[in-house]
Structure of Large-conductance mechanosensitive channel:
Amino acid sequence: MGVISEFKAFAVKGNVVDMAVGIIIGAAFGKIVSSFVGDVIMPPIGLLIGGVDFADLAITLKAAQGDVPAVVLAYGKFIQSIIDFVIVAFAIFMGVKAINRLKREEAVAPSLPPTPSKEEVLLGEIRDLLKAQNNKPL
């Protein structure tokens, strides 16, 4: 099998395609969460703590000099990234929790007992005949 045919077999497997779709959707979800945190969650939090915009929180380590930009420790953006992560992790946790609940409900669903094989039916008939013979008075 050539390298190209092996690659084709690998690339069209269901798991690879599912993973690619998941990555694309995850990237889009990440943008939505970043916007949600930056544009919806952080402004009210900043207002509650005195009108602070987290994106502007920074410590200047070295001021700008001529063409050299300032060296800034932007801890506000780091705080915002942590909140982004917590929201994404919580959303994924809730999704996995819902999927696990559905799986448990599937497992609990009663299933029909398996039908006995021909051998089991025959052995049952033999057992019943032997019982009947042993219970006959002599």
User: Anything to note?
Assistant: The radius of gyration is 33 Å. The helical segments are 3-11, 14-48, 75-108, 118-134. The chain has one domain: 1-132. The chain has a mean pLDDT of 82.
